[in-house]
């Protein structure tokens, strides 16, 4: 079926409320402020509870879901709306298609499979704001438009960007289909998160699980939408954290996971101690994180490596390298004649052992460096002994180089596990550091904030600048919106010439200055003052400089800028690692060292600039979506709101300008050709292809759905639709069209499947009775319908079944009690149970005297002991149960027994015992003072196809003529053509009984004449029988013809009956000396006529003298 339509104005009465259907006529007199001026519908009061589950229809309204609808567009109004929703646990809010997410600092209840089902395939405004809605929109647009998509998640550190990225990947994994290979790719996508978090995330002052690297995760899809590949691009790994952390921060998670989770054998082999033993961990004196279980996370990290395909031997080497870096950091130096010397030679042994290198060579490379000297055309290598500061720098450079290359190896391992030969479609998820402003900001913060500045530029280019430029190009009527374009800040940082940017000046200083430490940094500061000192977004101070970023002013300390920008791992250290005994470590250092290599080495700044520009180019090739994350407080506590902090983020994220552009702009725009291609199905003139001018075709479509002219504008190449509701209605009409076609296809396919199914069922049923029971001529080839009661329209019967219990068989049958009295019952078979339902009068209460359905018996299929049938062509069978058996008669016994056999075998893994005999017994339950015991049914050869019943004490004799041979099988192929019957009809049953007082030809009983064949027994189904003179018994339901005990009534010579049989209470109609009796209940007569349900005319005649 189709999804519910979206509410006008995009306004909802709370989360997951069912939205009203809007007629297909698209007259939209849209007033975006109407819902704010009119009183909102209030949910009904329910005791003292004001708030309900977020998916309830009665949900407390909290602010506005889409801030385009705010009556006032100010930072205060935006922050107030976000706060109101945040306090009511609604963390998502829209600005048009942009999603605003506020970090709740707790687990929210609406990220379950239930929400995934709710948002899958739904329009954005059909449900409350959610990250699943944005993700589903991306996924469907990728398949519909055949265009790559990306989502840019931005916000400051601790705003929840990484968690948002995980929810996106989890949703895509859930809703996309695929086989075993696709499932493997999904597992890798999901398991890459804990692995990369372990090696790339750390605790910072502002975030306990801060991403200390940037990643762009491309999930690659087949044309059918199955994720069959992926690729991760990583950048900006904060290598300096390996060797130094600020107060109240930690190193990368993997170090603490290893120390907490390693086995005893690993601890011994790797020489693991407590965290405070290691210099690289004890500088901040912080080892634990609230809410983090390092031991458990270590197990997840190992499991992730296994899923990705890293063999156990390599996993061990990875952990060995991590431990080696820790031990390397404990090597300290002391001064010996202005030169560095290893303070404790003993500390060299363990890192050398773990890295597979010689401890003597390690000591040599840490305290000296080989330099190439060129003089007079000759090249000469000399060893230069390092001082203490230089030796510590060399040690740290080796540790950072080892960790960075290990991280690159893990990323490459993930990429190898997901690689595919060719790319088709992709969804990219950008998760990068948030904007950082610390008390002391260094080179790392400078690089991070530069990349965030570039991402903000993309947002401005595509949502503010490009949109307005497009309106101008297309000739759309438009009111320009003023906004701050941060391109001037990006140019300040990355310009190459006229004037050179900060990065160019930094690279120049690193290339021309041979000084280290503070000397080079002060030179950098002087050159910056000369180059960009007059820039309006730049200021300098004694120890650094200030940049006016889009997120605010940030002061950078230049100390260490030059050293970190050089980012050089000396060739001596590379040569050292290439001598390792471990092939894994040698593989991490594949360089071919060339002493004659010329040219300026690349710097960290130039690499980051190239990565940032490549990333921007990649994102610009995709259709972008945006998530703007907001951090509500610095305490990291739920429901804590710092107003000034939030307002500052609202300001620098440009939310106010974004709202203004959205309100004045158009929610949807598409090229004429693509619009026609998508909505061509709406009219016969455009389907399957519009033959005329594309512009006229679009206008024809919009007129066909009665869209108001003020809801759209026609550009030169595109159509612009103003409100999202108009688009959603177009989508709904389209879905209904496809739904109709899909139903036609499904109907044809189901009919085809049903034909085969019925043929198989008839064959199975025939095999059950083959060579064991005679068959009726009229039933051997009939189609199996299953539901002869029409349960879809019988809630009074469905109430006894389970909520989602499927029905295999349902029919009205005749049940015989201990006295062989016939009683109408409804028999229902489901995959688990057999239900027997009757009717009784209500004896008490306001419904006293009314007839209602009563569950007489519910038998678990596994509790059945077997089924007994005769060898004749009758319709009787016995259900053998543990307590008491059921003796039943059904026209559709073959269908019922075959389905019962199938379900019994499914439940018990053994066949259902079937007994075929002409002498059957069934057990009856104990009733009052009377005993239980058994009753017998004997089947004998009679005349005709209709059974004749004769009661004799505890035995019932059934006489019936010969049927088809026991070896008979179905011969008719396929199903009868023509209009299918209703499920509640029985295709082979006789017509209903004629009106009271008439026979089947419309003749009253008094007008009939002619003798009937003499006999001393009861005939069922005689064609001359009539119910015309019958009246119901006072204490029996009048509308239950299968359960009537008629009142004694005579016509003409009525005394004949009462004199002949004083015990008879049957209902008789007399004419020409014939007594016609319907369902005589008296056991003293020795004769019995059972009713056979509402679909057959079952009458009897009795001959009297």
UniProtKB/TrEMBL annotation:
Record Pfam families: Myosin_head (PF00063), Myosin_TH1 (PF06017)
Per UniProt, the ranges with Basic and acidic residues bias are 1033-1043
Q: Which UniProt keywords apply?
A: Actin-binding, ATP-binding, Calmodulin-binding, Motor protein, Myosin, Nucleotide-binding, SH3 domain
Instruction: Cite the record's Basic residues compositional bias ranges.
Output: 969-982
> Domain of life of the organism in this record?
Eukaryota
Q: Where is this region: Actin-binding?
A: 612-634
An annotated GO cellular component of this protein is: myosin complex
In alphabetical order, the GO MF annotations are: actin binding; ATP binding; calmodulin binding; cytoskeletal motor activity
Start and end residues of each Myosin motor domain: 62-735
Which SUPFAM superfamilies does the UniProt entry name for this protein? P-loop containing nucleoside triphosphate hydrolases
* Residues covered by region (Disordered): 958-1054
UniProt-recorded name of the protein: FLJ00395 protein
Species source reads: Homo sapiens
């Amino acid at each position: 079926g189709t999804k519910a339509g979206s509410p006008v104005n995009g306004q909802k009465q709370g989360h997951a409320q069912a939205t009203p259907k809007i007629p297909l006529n698209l007259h939209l007199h849209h007033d975006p402020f109407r819902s704010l001026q009119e009183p909102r519908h209030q949910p009904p009061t329910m005791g003292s509870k004001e708030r309900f589950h977020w998916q309830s229809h009665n949900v407390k309204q909290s602010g506005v879901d889409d801030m385009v609808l705010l009556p006032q567009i100010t930072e205060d109004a935006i922050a107030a709306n976000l706060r109101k929703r945040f306090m009511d646990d609604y963390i998502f809010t829209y600005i048009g298609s942009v999603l605003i997410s506020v970090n709740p600092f707790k687990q929210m209840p609406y990220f379950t499979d239930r929400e995934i089902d709710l948002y899958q395939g739904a329009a954005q405004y059909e449900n409350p704001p959610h990250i699943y809605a944005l993700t589903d929109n991306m996924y469907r647009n990728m398949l519909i438009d055949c265009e790559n998509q990306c989502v840019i998640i931005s916000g400051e550190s601790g705003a929840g960007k990484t968690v948002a990225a995980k929810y996106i990947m989890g949703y895509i994994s859930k809703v996309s289909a695929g086989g075993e290979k696709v499932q493997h790719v999904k597992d890798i996508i999901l398991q890459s998160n804990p692995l990369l978090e372990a090696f790339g995330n750390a605790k910072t002052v502002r975030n306990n699980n801060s991403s200390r690297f940037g990643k762009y995760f491309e999930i690659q899809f087949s044309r059918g939408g199955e994720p069959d590949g992926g690729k991760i691009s990583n950048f900006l790994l904060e290598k300096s954290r390996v060797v130094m952390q600020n107060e109240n921060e930690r190193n990368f998670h993997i170090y603490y996971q290893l120390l907490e989770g390693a086995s005893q054998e690993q601890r011994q082999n790797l020489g693991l101690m407590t965290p405070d033993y290691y210099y690289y961990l004890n500088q901040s004196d912080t080892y634990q994180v609230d809410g983090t279980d390092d031991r458990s996370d270590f197990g997840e990290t190992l499991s992730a490596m296994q899923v990705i395909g890293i063999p156990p031997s390599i996993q061990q080497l990875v952990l060995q390298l991590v431990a080696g870096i820790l031990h390397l950091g404990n090597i300290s130096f002391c001064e010996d004649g202005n030169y560095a010397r290893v303070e404790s030679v003993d500390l060299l042994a363990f890192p050398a052992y773990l890295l597979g290198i010689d401890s003597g060579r390690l000591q040599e490379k840490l305290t000296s460096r080989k330099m190439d000297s060129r003089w007079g055309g000759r090249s000469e290598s000399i060893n230069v002994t390092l001082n203490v500061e230089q030796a510590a720098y060399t040690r740290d450079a080796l540790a950072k180089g080892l960790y960075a290359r290990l991280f690159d190896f893990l990323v490459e391992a993930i990429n190898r596990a997901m690689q595919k030969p060719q790319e088709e479609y992709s969804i990219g998820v950008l998760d990068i550091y948030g904007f950082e402003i610390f008390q002391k900001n260094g080179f790392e913060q400078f690089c991070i904030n530069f990349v965030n500045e570039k991402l903000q530029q993309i947002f401005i280019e595509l949502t503010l600048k490009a949109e307005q430029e497009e309106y101008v190009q297309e000739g759309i009527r438009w009111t320009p919106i003023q906004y701050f374009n941060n391109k001037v800040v990006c140019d300040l940082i990355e310009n190459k010439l006229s004037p050179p940017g900060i990065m160019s000046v930094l690279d120049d200083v690193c290339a021309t200055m041979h000084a280290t430490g503070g000397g080079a940094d002060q030179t950098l500061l002087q050159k910056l003052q000369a180059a960009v000192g007059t820039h309006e977004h730049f200021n300098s101070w004694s120890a650094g400089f200030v940049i006016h970023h889009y997120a605010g002013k940030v002061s950078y300390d230049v100390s260490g800028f030059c050293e970190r920008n050089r980012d050089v791992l000396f060739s001596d250290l590379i040569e050292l690692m290439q001598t390792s005994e471990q092939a894994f470590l040698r593989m991490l250092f594949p360089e071919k060292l060339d002493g004659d290599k010329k040219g300026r080495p690349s710097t960290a700044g130039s690499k980051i600039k190239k990565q940032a520009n490549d990333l921007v180019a990649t994102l610009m090739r995709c259709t972008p979506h945006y998530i703007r994350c907001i951090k509500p407080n610095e305490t990291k506590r739920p429901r804590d709101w710092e107003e000034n902090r939030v307002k500052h983020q609202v300001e620098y994220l440009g939310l106010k300008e974004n709202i203004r552009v959205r309100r004045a702009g158009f929610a949807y725009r598409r090229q004429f050709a693509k619009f026609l291609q998508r909505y061509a199905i709406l009219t016969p003139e455009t389907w399957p292809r519009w033959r005329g001018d594309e512009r006229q075709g679009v206008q024809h479509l919009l007129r066909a759905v009665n869209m108001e002219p003020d809801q759209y504008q026609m550009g030169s190449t595109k159509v612009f639709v103003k409100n999202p509701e108009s688009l959603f209605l177009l989508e709904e009409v389209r879905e209904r069209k496809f739904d109709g076609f899909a139903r036609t296809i499904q109907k044809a396919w189901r009919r085809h499947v049903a034909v085969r199914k019925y043929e198989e069922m008839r064959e199975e049923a025939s095999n059950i009775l083959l060579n064991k029971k005679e068959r009726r001529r009229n039933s051997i080839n009939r189609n199996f319908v299953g539901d002869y009661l029409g349960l879809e329209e019988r809630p009074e019967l469905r109430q006894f079944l389970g909520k989602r219990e499927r029905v295999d068989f349902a029919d009205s049958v005749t049940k015989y009690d201990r006295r062989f009295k016939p009683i109408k019952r409804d028999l229902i078979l489901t995959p688990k149970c057999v239900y027997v339902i009757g009717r009784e009068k209500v004896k008490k209460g306001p419904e006293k005297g009314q007839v209602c359905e009563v569950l007489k018996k519910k038998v678990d299929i596994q509790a059945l002991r077997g089924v007994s049938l005769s060898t004749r062509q009758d319709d009787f069978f016995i259900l053998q149960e543990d307590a008491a058996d059921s003796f039943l008669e059904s026209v559709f016994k073959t269908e019922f027994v075959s389905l019962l056999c199938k379900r019994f075998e499914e439940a018990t893994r053994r066949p259902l015992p079937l007994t075929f005999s002409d002498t059957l017994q069934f057990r009856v339950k104990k009733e009052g003072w009377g005993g239980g015991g058994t009753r017998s049914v004997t089947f004998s050869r009679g005349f005709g196809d209709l059974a004749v019943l004769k009661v004799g004490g505890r035995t019932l004799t059934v006489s019936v003529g010969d049927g088809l041979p026991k070896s008979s099988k179905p011969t008719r192929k396929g199903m009868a053509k023509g209009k299918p019957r209703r499920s509640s009809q029985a295709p082979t049953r006789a017509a209903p009984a004629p009106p009271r007082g008439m026979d089947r030809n419309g003749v009253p009983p008094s007008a009939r004449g002619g003798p009937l064949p003499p006999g001393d027994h009861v005939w069922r189904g005689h064609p001359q029988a009539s119910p015309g003179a019958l009246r119901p018994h006072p204490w029996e339901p009048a509308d239950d013809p299968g359960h009537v005990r008629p009142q004694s009534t005579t016509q003409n010579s009525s005394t004949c009956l009462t004199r002949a049989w004083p015990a008879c209470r049957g209902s008789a109609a007399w004419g020409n000396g014939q007594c016609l009796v319907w369902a005589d209940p008296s056991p003293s007569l020795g004769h019995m006529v059972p009713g056979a349900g509402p679909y057959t005319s079952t009458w009897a005649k009795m001959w009297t003298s």
